[in-house]
Amino acid sequence: MNIFRLAGDMTHLFSVLVLLLKIHTIKSCAGISLKTQELYALVFASRYLDIFTNYISLYNTTMKLIFLGSSFSIVWYIRYHKIVRRTYDKEHDTFRHYILILPCLLLALVFHERLTFREVMWAFSLYLEAVAILPQLVLLQRTRNIDNLTGQYVFLLGAYRALYILNWIYRYFTEPHFIHWITWISGLVQTLLYADFFYYYFQSWKNNQKLHLPA
Fold first, then answer.
1. Is residue 29 part of a domain?
2. Which of 57, 72, 137, 155 yields a CA-CA distance of 20 to 30 A from 16?
3. Which domain holds residue 46?
């Protein structure tokens, strides 16, 4: 564990807490893409297949349980909560997210570290996580109405991935044989997808204006 890994984990955790705060206190999921949340639920479900068979540490198991539980809880709230589901912007959240799943699975079958079910699913989760934010970004561009909590949620998600890249760089120089090119490439792609959002986020912060994305 190093400072970049810890900061990345905490930033990821804060992003989830911000979203849950929005849903629980305001009883609203306005501006939140159900498609992205479903993809994240699939990411964590396929990545943490070893949660009950491969114990690493209490911290590791706790974080896995938090991300699994929160991702499926968010999907449930948006789909079934009698108040929250009324605020879901189904009209604009039309990105066909299922078309991302098959290409990511095919990539995992071709490019993986070891040809085992668990390793293929691990690679699949990395590829899928890299593009899971796309429905959310498209929704924000279509509505152009971004409240503070939604903006902070997306910003924290992007910051988490950027911090993880710093973590990998640190480990590359401090740990022998630390080369996981699948992780590096998927993480870089995911961070680049946030570049446009980061630009407008910092512009709005600098000018003390409401965040808007171009159509």
1. yes
2. 57
3. 3-206
